[in-house]
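Bit of a strange request maybe. I'm writing a small parser for structure token strings and I need a real example to test against, not something I typed by hand. Could someone generate the tokens for this chain?
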Amino acid sequence: MSKIHPAAENRYQYQDRGVHHHQVEDAHDINPSVLTVWKRSSMSFQGTDGFTVFDNQGILTFRVDNYSRKNCGIRKGLVLMDGAGRALLTLKPQVLSMQDQWNAYRGDYGCAKSPKSSRVFTMRNTGSGLFGRGNKSEATAEVFMGSETTSPTPDFRIEGCFRRRNCKIRSSSGQLVANVARKRVNNTVMLGEDVFSLVVQPGFDRDLIMAFVIVLDRICGKPLTPILCS
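Reply from user aminoacidic:
Good idea to test on real output. This should exercise your parser:
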């Protein structure tokens, strides 16, 4: 059985600065960060779903264990954790949103009301290409950083089709930030859609980009699959 983690070598330390573009502290950290995302919870018992993410050495880097079908339902949202289970960001859907809007907050707020001051970003579905109908250059989702979303220009744009595991994340200037692609074992063998590669360019926050991917998975749900809860 093939390993599902990538072979490329890289490392990145999380920096919580509340902005979308980060400076690299380690001068040797100049290569893209290659992660393998497995759409499966690290908790294998019935009633959970989520994500398990490995770094280039096969070490558990991120986890999402979704219990939203219990307890508080959609109000609880999803919690992005590091490999040790420490909460990094809470991701919550905006109730009654017309654009499949999700908000991200620092830490784990669970069922409690998240203060606006702790909001890290807001992602909105633009309705273009989310289900494979749009042009590759069209934005399928837009991200606005911080607690205010009145700016007409998003800080990030997602282009392509996430559902097909073929999309790119770009900054407001058009710079490539990260890309999602089907995971290949070799030149002829490609894994299923539940395992895919996430390549994050140096200088950008892996935690933030992983949070984008989690929200994309919710707003780009497959047919007959509830958007808010799998």
